[in-house]
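Hi there,

I know you've been waiting on this one. I reran it after we fixed the sequence typo, so this is the corrected version. Both the input and the resulting structure follow.
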Amino acid sequence: MNVISKLQRGLRNRPQRSGPRLLTVKDAFHLTPNMIRVIFSGPELEGFPTGCDGGNCKLLLPSPGETKEDFATRLATGHKLVKRTYTVRSFDAQTGELIIDFVDHGDNGPASQWANHAKSGDFLGFAGPSGPKVTNFDADWFLVAADPSAIPVAAATLEAMPNNAKGIAIFEVTSIEDKQCIDIPEGIDVHWLVHPDPSKPSQAQYEFLQNLDWPSGRVETCVAGESGVIRQLRDFLNNEMQVPRKDTYISGYWKIGLVEDEHQKFKRAGG
């Protein structure tokens, strides 16, 4: 048994998964022009929790050119690694395949750079996942809204809904070619909005909701995306439309002009 195998076995056998997993890429490709899909598989995914589609996770990224053995050593010994937050798009326990989607920012940012060059046999560290963001589907109707960063959580939420679910889904994408095939209940009215420059603030989702003929009954939401947009939408939902906070999942996943560490500090400061 070589060093990598020993380290991987040690990581897999830790009680309650206290340490991260070393994941291996099975395939990577552009799902749409601005979204990269990476599929992971291998024995490291044995015992991976089911029912966590849409949950967040931490990806721990190797340095460019780093060997798998060197990275596995750093991962196993708790060295500080570049870390980014992502969403579990899906995990199939039968095939043992884990899917994570990455917004393509080119080589701007360590995660996008890694995903852009990912190929079969490549690797990274994985910590998590959390549980899904929306677990109760007993409302009269549902509102789902997402920019590209939040399409994975929105898609996973929609696919978990009962077949008779009703509601509205809003996806804001960079180009119309970024529309995805998602298994959405027939009663969900889907709208794809185009915002070609994500570096500039968008009003599209807010204006859409302002002009919406608001359905009657209790609503549950799954809304996530850029923090400036989310602040507007949160105010609209909680204050204007009086949607109870207990029925509202709404979260800022990123902020224009800030890298993730800066954004996390911004959120902790109440931003």
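Quick highlight: The domain at 141-268 is CATH 3.40.50.80 (Rossmann fold).

Best,
R. S.
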